[in-house]
């Protein structure tokens, strides 16, 4: 494979993983798309991504990664619980999908070198997804902001829910801000990403994504303040503007945050707490507590769980919860031990965002955008690849000289 084409094809493989994790459920689209067709496209994207990654990495050279090792270990309780006949064929199919997903990440880990290459892939690809959301809003504003979702922005061309759009917008906003502060991009390019993404985030009225963005940026920029004057200035101005906005726009911010909900509905997290209580109160055998009930659609009694920890407990048991917790401990510990740098700041942002979002969003135990976010963080924390050793010069066969010609006499 040509060396100049490999980075582009690696980005293509990453884009196919992004397509696979977009999901197949959401609002009604302008052109009705059968769910079977969407699932065929997303699963086909995963198969092509694995094939492309394998073609790029024929010799199976991978980088050591505690993150990928833990994801591989997560397959053990997934397979054990999904092998139960009561779990159904769908659970085993999801296990195969997770195995293919993790295998593709292993193959792509060859290019994890602590640089921002995968950050740029991440921003470009999710920005393309947001462009499709914006295009759907322009084509059919009614379908893009339906009453079913309370007037919140959804995907009108591809079925995307408001939390999904808010997540994608928040992540690329945070990463672009950090690249701008570290002078890895210019202001014009950053504005082209940040401004429209911020508008889409506000239209989704997604509280989790907004809080994750603010908290993640605060921690990430705080890690840069000791070494970056630009980060110190930005942090100071951000705190000042936030304080002024909190005072001047207090009522408007409160109305946006409540989204027209009552205090009681807001206090139980839009009904999530009731589902969580029912899930924890459900009777389980010892095996189900340890290994879970098998991979499913992250729901309980037909209602979404909307909590990564409870979803992992429900599907992969206490072993799954321990492995996912270890992922955050390992990535967070490595990030804290690294010296201040733009790569470290981006990793801290992604880790903290995923950690905060895990309280109201599911996805840490299965192939999802959250696992891709953490994979980018792992690529940023990877040690730089050692320089390739120079190849030894080929042995040149020496010409045999006859013995009579080795010495000469002068007469």
Give an overview of the whole structure.
- With 411 residues, this protein is mainly α.
- The protein has helices spanning 6-20, 35-56, 66-82, 89-108, 117-139, 141-144, 162-181, 187-204, 207-222, 229-248, 250-258, 263-267, 272-281, 286-291, 308-337, 342-357, 369-381; strands spanning 299-300, 303-304.
- It has a two-stranded antiparallel ribbon.
- It is globular and about 100 Å long.
- The model has no long low-confidence stretch (mean pLDDT 85).
Chart the SSEs and their pairings.
Blueprint: H1 6-20, H2 35-56, H3 66-82, H4 89-108, H5 117-139, H6 141-144, H7 162-181, H8 187-204, H9 207-222, H10 229-248, H11 250-258, H12 263-267, H13 272-281, H14 286-291, E1 299-300, E2 303-304, H15 308-337, H16 342-357, H17 369-381
Helix pairs in contact: 1-2, 1-5, 2-4, 3-4, 3-15, 5-7, 7-8, 7-9, 7-16, 9-16, 15-16, 16-17
Mean pLDDT: 85
Instruction: Give the termini distance in whole angstroms.
Output: 63 Å
* Global geometry: globular
Model regions low in confidence, pLDDT < 50 over at least 5 residues? none
Strand content: under 5%
Count of helical stretches: 17
Order of helices and strands: HHHHHHHHHHHHHHEEHHH
Number of strands: 2
Major beta-sheet overview: 2 strands, antiparallel
The helicity comes to 55-70%
Structural class: mainly alpha
- Using the CA coordinates, give the radius of gyration: 25 Å
**What's the arrangement of strands in the largest beta sheet?**
1-2
